[in-house]
Specification:
Layout lengths: L2 H10 L3 H8 L6 H8 L7 H10 L10 H11 L4 E2 L2 E2 L6 H7 L3 H10 L4 H11 L5 H11 L2 H9 L3
Antiparallel strand pairs: 1-2
Length: 156
Amino acid sequence: MHRSCVVCVLVADFDVEEIMEEFTMEDINVLDFARKISMITIDTPLSIEFDNKYGQKKDKWWTSQREHMVAWCLHYPTKGVERYNHKPSDSAREMYNRFGRPETLLWLIEALGEDKNRVCDIINKIEDISNPKTACSIIRKEISFDRVLQLLSNID
């Protein structure tokens, strides 16, 4: 079999968008990312409504999802905090792709100015999903980190 045919067969069994996300290496330092998002709006009615209905209820120390994500970013280059341990990384892409709370990811995309209809469509897809990691996975399939960077560039 010709070498390119083997590649085609192998790729056919995988989600091409997910594979391409891994090969797209545009990134930003997670501390720079934290600085950029630290001043964007917390007035995000769609994600606030989702958070009130489905968001984390226990061990909630933050006053806004912006505070939650900025603090997470600040600790990402370290080993983490208390029971939230991870391998230190400077990658905002990695942080976004591993973040585990859908209400925070929804805040981010809404605050960055993603189309409201698209945000509503995502909420409709995840509102009945009880596993936050599954919901985050769906959000990331809809809004890749490349899209986050694109939206972020519009507010600089």
